[in-house]
Amino acid sequence: MKVCAAAAAEFAREFGGVPEGVWCAPGRVNLIGEHVDYAGGLCLPLALPQVTAAAVRRRDDGTVRLVSEGFAGASFGLLQPPKGRTGGWAAYVAGVIHTLDPPGFAGVDVAIASDVPVGAGLSSSAALEAAVALALAELYGLPVDDAGRAALAAACTRAENDCVGAPTGGMDQQIALRGRAGRALLLDCATGAVEHIPIDLESHGLALLVVDTDAPHRLVDGPYGQRRRDVEEAARRLGVTSLREVDTVAALDALTDPVLRRRAGHVVTEIARVRAAVAALRDDAPDRLGPLLDAAHRSLRDDFEVSSVELDSAVDAARAAGALGARMVGGGFGGSAIALCRATDVAAVAEAVTVAARERDLPRPKFLRAVAAAGARRCS
Fold first, then answer.
1. What are residue 68's phi and psi, to 5 degrees?
2. Are the beta carbons of 179 and 295 closer than 8 angstroms?
3. DSSP β-bridge partners for residue 195
4. pLDDT tens per residue across span 329-348
5. What is the spatial distance between Cα 22 and Cα 163, in angstroms, rounded to a whole number?
6. Whole-structure pTM value
7. Which of 22, 171, 216, 318 could hold 326 in an S-S bridge, CB 3.0 to 4.6 Å?
8. Helix (H) or strand (E) segment spanning residue 183
9. Phi and psi torsions of 329, nearest 5°
10. Could you give the domains of the chain?
11. CA-CA distance, 116 to 51, in Å (whole number)?
12. How far is the CA of 53 from the CAs of 17, 21, 27, 41, 301, in angstroms?
């Protein structure tokens, strides 16, 4: 794999010698189930072929050295708190080290390479965390079976929440570490249970097109955190632990605040859409996903208010060009959208999205096809 080779080459240039191994973890796209992970909901992500690779070698002098192609490196001692002391991408690695605190850890050299688009809402941060976490687990003897990977994912989520300051819900880390090729991951965020759901678009002549709008988003910004606080406040006013406990939209009539009612309405209807999407895949009827994607985008745009002009342009243009369904993905406020297309229509849909962006004087979008790939693994 080119990215793994690039990480090893970066390691040799910066640190000399060879790493003890190279580990990689994928970006992800969430088919459906957006902004419900922190509400105890259901999500249906799949891992992408694009990965972040970490070439790693242990040290014994209490020093951590980090380097990444195209980004400034970092170096710090083990007793240095990671939050606020290591900026940018290095804070994610420092947070994982701090949170895992593997037995016998005395320093490490890490070189990173990646082909996961940064700032595109495809979870480049979780890919980075998962690659480093799996490397540390294997080097220091932590469990790496499925239960061990679930624990690693939880540690990565704590690292992002506590050490980076991004209030993410954990879906991204779970799919990065537990994804399987040819499967979407049905994740129950209330219990942590997972089920691997076969997803076969190709045999139905379909493709899932990812549109990177080139409008970056940052989950540490205020709006994402405010949406999470809205969801938690709605649950508190309804007297439930999480909105997962609310079965019907009618039950939300008890919310007198119209903003909170809209936020909660998105969560409740989105969880229902995940169940419908899983049923479609189990019935080997992926064409039924289209209307669900459309409804999800309307809900994210109108009720949760996390879309953007770039995302709406991409979704509207894709649908007008014949996509069966389309929606924004990720945290929102920029990032990426997905469009379920007939494979023969992919080029036309991409062209229509590009033309619409140009006519609105928006950044030129980039495209990739989403194919369900494997989760984090050792690549050399």
1. -145, 140
2. no
3. 186
4. 988 888 999 999 999 999 99
5. 24
6. 0.91
7. 318
8. strand 183-188
9. -130, 160
10. 2-198+373-378 (3.30.230.10), 202-369 (3.30.70.890)
11. 6
12. 17, 10, 11, 30, 34
Structure tokens at 4: 């793994």
How many Å apart are CA 219 and CA 51, to the nearest integer? 20
Report how far residue 70's alpha carbon sits from residue 336's, in angstroms, rounded to the nearest whole number: 22
Please name the residues in contact with 189: beta carbons below 8 A apart, sequence gap of 6 or more: 36, 37, 38, 39, 40, 41, 42, 43, 169, 170, 171, 244
Query: SS3 of 197, please?
Result: strand
Q: Where are the alpha helices (DSSP H) in the chain?
A: 2-15, 90-100, 124-140, 146-158, 171-178, 222-238, 258-282, 289-298, 309-320, 346-359
What one-character-per-residue DSSP string does 294-329 give?
HHHHHIIIIIS----HHHHHHHHHHHHTT-SEEEEE
**DSSP designation for 20:** S
- The predicted-structure confidence for 68-84, as pLDDT tens digits, reads as follows 987 766 777 765 544 54
Angle between helices 258-282 and 222-238 (to 10 degrees): 90
Burial level of 60, CB count in 10 A (0-12/13-18/19+)?
Answer: exposed
**Which residues have a Cβ under 8 Å from the Cβ of 95 and sit 6 or more positions away?**
82, 83, 129, 159, 160, 162, 163, 164
**With contact defined as beta carbons under 8 Å apart, do 174 and 25 qualify?**
no
The pLDDT value recorded for residue 84 is 44
Give strand pairing partners of 57.
Answer: 109
- Please state, for a pLDDT cut of 90, what percent of the chain lies above it: 83
What are the catalytic residues? 172
Pairing, β 325-329 against β 336-342: antiparallel
**Edge-first strand listing for the sheet containing 336-342:** 325-329, 336-342, 206-212, 366-369
Parallel, antiparallel, or unpaired for β 107-114 and 63-68?
Answer: parallel
In sign, the C-alpha dihedral spanning 87, 308, 123, 153 is: positive
Q: Which residue, chain included where needed, has tokens 């050490």?
A: 163
CA pair distance 380, 369, nearest whole angstrom? 26
Contact 243, 268 (CB under 8 A): yes
Using the predicted structure, report yes or no on whether residue 208 has a pLDDT greater than 80: yes
